[in-house]
Write a structure and sequence with these properties.
This is Helix-turn-helix protein. It holds the Pfam family HTH_18. Keywords: DNA-binding, Transcription, Transcription regulation. The protein has a single domain, classed as Arc Repressor Mutant, subunit A. The protein is about 60% helix and about 0% strand. The protein contains 5 helices and no strands. The protein is elongated and about 40 Å long. The mean pLDDT is about 90.
């Protein structure tokens, strides 16, 4: 199967492109780690595939609507910062 055929089928089945799904999955995993552990944010960033804590923080804020530290402390409005796996 070609890359484009895979991406088309993936999008049709899951309703989002593969990279969007991957980013959402990474943020879902990171959000769970932030809420359920005291692991430093930089280490969580590395665990979900980010080489830079600042790049991870920007991506997390864009996806979840809150900075990782704010999310960890339970701050901010509920909105997008709800823990659901990307396929839900």
């Amino acid at each position: 199967m070609s890359r484009s055929a895979f991406a088309e089928r993936f999008t049709r089945v899951l309703g989002m492109p593969p990279m969007t799904y991957l980013t959402r999955w990474r943020m879902y995993v990171a959000a769970r780690r932030l809420r359920e552990s005291a692991v430093p944010i930089g280490r969580i960033a590395a665990e979900v595939g980010y080489e830079s804590e600042s790049t991870f923080s920007r991506a997390f804020a864009r996806e979840m609507g809150l900075a990782p530290g704010t999310f960890r402390r339970g701050g901010g409005p509920p909105g997008r910062a709800v823990l659901h796996s990307p396929s839900q």
